[in-house]
Input
Amino acid sequence: MQGVPGAVGKMLRRRYFLVEKARNASIVGILVGTLGVAGYLDVVDRVRELAKRCALLASTTVTCCAGKPPSHPVTQ
Output
């Protein structure tokens, strides 16, 4: 990468490597950091849809939710 300072070039190479590694993965994990945000399920579904469309998902998706459930009643 010519014309790019050393530290920036190193970050870009690492990012490219990690994107390629994710693209070739057979299992993709989606980590949800909170359950109290309205519409988080819509976001998770959208991320899955985008990943499938971009051919990032080979076979399996694993979703992990971390956090406390909301204190108010959840409607289905």
